[in-house]
Structure formats: structure tokens, C-alpha cells
From TrEMBL:
Transmembrane portions of the chain: 464-485
PROSITE patterns assigned to the protein according to its UniProt record, in alphabetical order: TYROSINASE_1, TYROSINASE_2
Tyrosinase copper-binding domain boundaries: 191-208, 366-377
Entry keyword annotation includes Metal-binding: yes
Alphabetical list of Pfam families matching this protein: Tyrosinase
Taxonomy of the source species: Eukaryota, Metazoa, Chordata, Craniata, Vertebrata
UniProt name for this protein: Tyrosinase-like
Signal peptide segment: 1-24
Length: 566
């Protein structure tokens, strides 16, 4: 029925097929029309809402419901969807209070529980195989408890739909939903601000618990990848996450070869995952070290410089903050000895991998993402241990979604951005085991590729391209140029956008993922009669420009929002 309906309307076909593969963190029970109408997300546990009659929690209104309506409905989570949600008591947790808080287990959640996250290369063969196969199972298993949201315009209340997803893709979607800048703003819920580190801590705890429940492997944990121990992607091998070929595809002997990404392309502001086309899957791409601007991993020196920063975060609490531990660790503020780089620490590792990992907000499609963030979380923990006196910033300059008392989107039950401050990893049921090999006393002996590159800029600048991309890239480039010409008229609309946005747009349109997608898309559209809806980014704003200027209407809204500067 469903499929034959798609056959009638190619526009709908595009949208529906694209929606099929994507997902959001909404409890399945809270996505029915009835629940959305009553605005109460209080699923039953053991027969009563929020397990109330079992003493687990209560359905209660939350403060965000009283906040004014923002331009983008994702701000003030979960205001636009629900007035009441579960508040869990004791050690109970979960959207229906049916789970235990991290660090607790048992029927009453009264037993302590602890895992040690190890460095990935310290895992035994059997630990590693179990870890990778648990991940693979999560990628393939439908999430029975959650659905994901897609939307073609997040400035219009009620303009969304829910879809089934796998457990792993739920996690990818959650990152997308909160990492994508809000319409009318340059900020998002999870990056470029003080919530960055805590949002990702919660995110890893969430997927860890989901995978434990799915696989029954209660010892599942996310190892970390200490990239200061290496000068290349030492886990980009078939033993770990797959070797990579010249075209950036994962080696055919790796189980990650067949992993398809969801929401794989950068979409315009206000769009959440409507461009996934099930008939044109985008696979994982990695080209570690191939971008001459970002061909080095951060060093121990960079880490120590970051760790020595005394203030957690500083005004204006965004990517321009100076002397901010958060901004150094995130990688917008350069450590002392890497001023020649345009990204450092967290951002640099994303950029270094040059592919799926370098495109925010879809980077979590690559399983290396969680190991990278596990290491970032380890550094956060070390800094917090050393700075017991620090506090979460309490300032009106903090972007609204990242203020101390705002709720982290899209998590249930609700958690404020400062919730994890003062809860160390031990209280959350985990700690980090140091690498089994101590560092040599002489310190760290990894050379920076970038320094070598800078000595011979002319050679390095030209040589990488052809060997890396090969004939494949010629085809993609042509497609890309074709798409660019086709879109020229529309792009002129964005000419008033800030320079940074335009540069990003250029990067975006010339990246190979986009080109493949544009080709597929143009192919489909040429066959359809509805070019207006779907061409050049399928931005509904293009067809019917609307003012979003209630917010910081500075032209950002009309620009294609690509956010590849992590
Ligand atoms: C956007 O989504 C809504 C429902 O979610 C739908 O009615 C509308 O047709 C869509 N618009 C476009 C341009 O796809
Ligand atoms: C989504 O999943 C639910 C439960 O797993 C199932 O009942 C439903 O048919 C699925 N819907 C679609 C469109 O596949
Ligand atoms: C990969 O590196 C190339 C070469 O510098 C760059 O043009 C491209 O934008 C990078 N791709 C991604 C996805 O970062
Ligand atoms: C790196 O940053 C410098 C200074 O901001 C800028 O001039 C240069 O164009 C940037 N390079 C790249 C490749 O983004
Ligand atoms: C660093 O490595 C180089 C070459 O591998 C070696 O010659 C040098 O002695 C090492 N330095 C330290 C401090 O270990």
C-alpha cells in the first residue's frame, strides 16, 4: 500500500524514501497522534504512567513548557512536543522510569555497577571482537523503544514525522538533531558552547546502555582512542574499524564496508534528515591525513596545553572564546604550538579523518566517533578532577540551548546542561583505565605531519589530489560543477550571507559525498515533473522565502547551512 502510494507522486517518493532510513530519540509510545495531542509523554511502566504505582516516578509538568516559543522548535526541548514528562525517583531512569541511572543495576536499581573503559588497542582479541560485533548488531537491529523525527522545516510547529530506526542509527540521529544549528541562529545544543563536553558524555552513556540492553552484554563499554599515541589512524585497519582504499571506502574485508550512513548529506537550515535516499546509500568514507591542511593528529603537547587552561569556559561562550578549556578541547582555540593549524584537538581529529567524520552533524555515522569522544570525555574528567572549584557558566551570554538550566536535547528524562557537573565518572559507573604502555620518560615522540608539509607547501599542495581521488574524483567534480551551475540562480540568494558561510558552502558542494548525492538526486528529479520542490538542496525556503528574522535575522537563515567547521 505504502509503496504503491509512493509510486503516484515522485515528490512524495523522494521524501518518503528519504525518511525511511532515518531516526530520532522519541519514545515510540510518545509519537502517536493521541499522545502528541495531549502533550503528555508519560509511557506506562508495569501498567502505570512512569511506573508511578511501583514507586518509580511521576508524570509532571516541566519548566520549559512555559518558555516563549523560539524560532526553531528544537530550542527549549521538549517544549514544542510535551508539557509533561516522567520525573524519576531514586536511582530510576529512562523515559518511563523503567531503567536505572548509569552506575546502578538490579530490579530496584540498588546495586552498584562499574566498568573501566580501556584504550582500544589494549583490548584483548576477544574483547575487541565482542565490541565490534555488538556495534554491528546495534547497526542492524531495529530500535523497539524509540523513533526518530524528520522535518522539512523546523520553524513550523507540528511539521515533523516519526520513523523507525536501528539502535545505532538512533544514536547517529540524536547527534544530528542536536548538532545542527538552529534556524535563525548560529548555535546548536551540543557544540560551540559550554554544553559540548557534557552533552557528549550523556550521549555516550545513552548508547552504552542501549547496546547493553540490546545485546544482553552488560559489560559493554565504549573504549577510547588515544590519538596522541600515534601519528596516523592506527585503528583504520581491518583489525579495528576497517582499512581504507584510495577512494576513501572501507576495505571489503571489514564489516564496516557495508555500513550505510543516515542523514548523510549536509542539509539546509531547518531540515532534519529528509535527504536520505534508500536507493542511493552513502557508505562510510575516510581519508585519514589526506587533507594537507589537517594532516596531523593532536599531540601530547597540545593535550597538556589544553589541560593547563584554568577556566572552564569564557565569554562569549562560543567558538571564539579565548583561554577557555572547553574551546581548546573542542578545538577552535589553538594550543601554543599549533598556531599553523586551523583546527586543533577534538576538531582536528574529525578533520584529519577527512570523510564522514569531518562533516558535522553526521559524524557519528562513523563508529570511530564514539572512541574519539570517549577520549575527549577522559580528558574532561581529568580536568574536572584538577579543578574542583570550577563551575558551569551561568551567564546570559551562553546560547539559550546550552544554559545551565536548559534541558539537553533530545534526552528523556530531562537533564539540565549542568546536571553532570559534580557527578564524577565513578558515580556514573565508569572510569578510564590508563593505557597499558607507559609513556617514555623522554615524552612524546610523534612528529607533526603539518610541520613537514609546511616546509614544502608547493609540493604538498598539489600532489595529494590525484593519487587520492583519482579518476573517481574527475567524475564527481564534473557532477559537482554541473550541480553548481544548475543551482547558480538559487545560490545568488545567499550572497548576503557571511563570508564564512559562503566558504563553507563551497567546501560542501565540492565534497564528494555531496556530489554523489547531487548526481543521484538530479537523476531522479529529471524524471519527475516537480523540479521546483527538490532541486538545489530541496529547500522549501527557496520556493517560498519566509522571514525568520524574529531571531538573530542576520542572513544566516537563508544560507545553506553546512557546519563543516566542527
Ligand atoms: C513538509 O512536510 C509536511 C508534513 O510534515 C508536508 O505536508 C509538506 O508537504 C512538506 N513540504 C515539502 C515542500 O516537502
Ligand atoms: C515500525 O516498528 C514497529 C515496531 O517495531 C512496527 O510495528 C511497525 O510496523 C514499523 N513501521 C514501519 C513503517 O516499518
Ligand atoms: C578532504 O580533503 C580535501 C582536500 O583538502 C578537502 O577538499 C575536502 O573538503 C575534505 N573533505 C572532507 C569531507 O573534509
Ligand atoms: C586557516 O586560517 C587562516 C587564518 O584564519 C586563514 O587565513 C586560512 O585561509 C585558513 N586556511 C584554511 C585552509 O581554511
Ligand atoms: C624519536 O624518534 C626518532 C626516530 O624514530 C629517534 O631517532 C629519536 O631518538 C626519538 N626521540 C625520543 C626522545 O625518543
Amino acid at each position: 500500500m505504502w509503496l504503491s502510494f509512493q509510486g503516484f507522486c515522485l515528490v512524495l517518493l523522494l521524501c518518503l524514501m528519504s525518511l525511511r532510513d532515518v531516526e530520532a530519540q522519541f519514545p515510540r509510545a510518545c509519537t502517536t497522534p493521541e499522545v502528541l495531542q495531549t502533550r503528555m509523554c508519560c509511557p506506562l511502566w508495569n501498567g502505570s504512567p512512569c511506573g508511578f504505582s511501583s514507586g518509580r516516578g511521576v508524570c509532571a509538568p516541566h519548566p520549559a513548557r512555559d518558555l516563549p516559543k523560539p524560532v526553531d522548535y528544537r530550542v527549549n526541548w521538549p517544549r514544542v512536543f510535551y508539557d509533561s514528562v516522567c520525573t524519576c525517583w531514586g536511582n530510576y531512569d529512562g523515559f518511563d522510569c523503567g531503567q536505572c541511572l548509569p552506575g546502578w543495576r538490579g530490579p530496584q536499581c540498588l546495586q552498584r555497577y562499574h566498568v573501566e573503559r580501556k584504550e582500544i588497542t589494549d583490548l584483548t582479541d576477544s574483547e575487541r571482537e565482542t565490541f565490534l560485533s555488538n556495534l554491528h548488531q546495534a547497526k542492524q537491529s531495529p530500535s523497539s523503544r524509540y523513533m526518530i523525527l524528520t522535518s522539512n522545516d523546523t520553524t513550523v510547529d507540528g511539521n515533523y514525522a516519526f520513523h523507525n530506526t536501528s539502535v545505532y542509527d538512533l544514536y547517529v540521529w540524536m547527534h544530528y538533531y542536536s548538532a545542527k544549528s538552529y534556524a535563525g541562529s548560529e548555535s546548536n545544543a551540543a557544540h560551540r558552547g559550554p554544553a559540548f563536553l557534557f552533552w557528549h558524555r550523556m550521549f555516550l552513556l545513552f548508547i552504552e546502555r542501549e547496546i547493553r540492553e540490546l545485546t544482553g552484554n552488560q559489560d559493554f563499554y565504549i573504549p577510547y582512542w588515544d590519538w596522541t599515541r600515534t601519528n596516523h589512524c592506527n585503528i583504520c585497519t581491518n583489525k579495528y574499524f576497517g582499512g581504507v582504499g584510495q577512494d576513501g571506502r572501507i576495505d571489503s574485508a571489514s564489516l564496516f564496508r557495508k555500513w550505510k550512513t543516515i542523514c548523510p548529506f549536509q542539509e539546509s537550515l531547518g531540515i532534519i534528515c529528509i535527504h536520505t535516499d534508500a536507493s542511493a546509500p552513502a557508505y562510510l568514507i575516510r581519508n585519514p591525513g589526506k587533507d594537507p591542511i589537517y594532516n596531523t593528529l593532536p599531540t601530547t603537547g597540545d593535550v597538556e596545553d589544553t589541560m593547563a587552561t584554568p577556566l572552564f569556559d569564557t565569554p562569549p561562550f562560543d567558538k571564539t572564546s579565548r583561554n577557555s578549556f572547553r574551546n581548546k578541547l573542542e578545538g577552535f582555540e589553538m594550543p601554543d604550538d599549533s598556531r599553523h593549524l586551523n583546527a586543533s584537538m577534538h576538531n582536528l581529529v574529525h578533520r584529519y579523518l577527512n570523510g564522514t567524520m569531518s562533516l558535522v552533524p553526521t559524524a557519528a555515522n562513523d563508529p570511530i566517533f564514539m572512541l574519539h569522544h570517549s577520549f575527549i570525555d577522559k580528558l574532561l574528567e581529568r580536568w574536572l578532577q584538577d579543578h574542583g572549584e570550577a563551575t558551569y557558566p551561568d551567564s546570559d551570554q551562553v546560547p539559550p540551548a546550552q544554559r545551565a538550566q536548559a534541558y539537553m536535547a533530545p534526552f528523556l528524562p530531562l537533564r539540565t546542561n549542568n546536571y553532570y557537573w559534580g557527578r564524577d565518572t565513578n558515580s556514573l559507573g565508569y572510569s578510564y583505565r590508563e593505557h597499558s604502555l607507559p609513556r617514555s620518560g623522554a615524552g612524546h615522540n610523534v612528529t607533526r605531519h603539518a610541520e613537514e608539509f609546511l616546509k614544502e607547501p608547493s609540493a604538498g599542495g598539489v600532489q595529494w589530489q590525484w593519487p587520492v581521488l583519482g579518476v573517481f574524483s574527475v567524475v564527481l567534480l564534473c557532477v559537482s560543477v554541473g550541480a553548481a551551475i544548475k543551482c547558480k540562480g538559487k545560490r545568488q540568494q545567499t550572497q548576503d550571507a557571511p563570508t564564512e558561510e559562503k566558504e563553507s558552502e563551497f567546501d560542501y558542494r565540492s565534497n564528494s559525498l555531496y556530489a554523489v548525492w547531487a548526481k543521484e538526486r538530479n537523476g531522479t528529479i529529471d524524471k519527475s515533473s516537480s523540479t521546483h520542490v527538490a532541486s538545489c538542496g530541496a529547500h522549501p525556503h527557496d520556493a517560498a522565502p519566509r522571514s525568520l528574522s524574529e531571531g538573530r535575522g542576520d542572513g544566516v537563515d537563508s544560507a545553506v547551512n553546512v557546519e563543516i567547521d566542527l
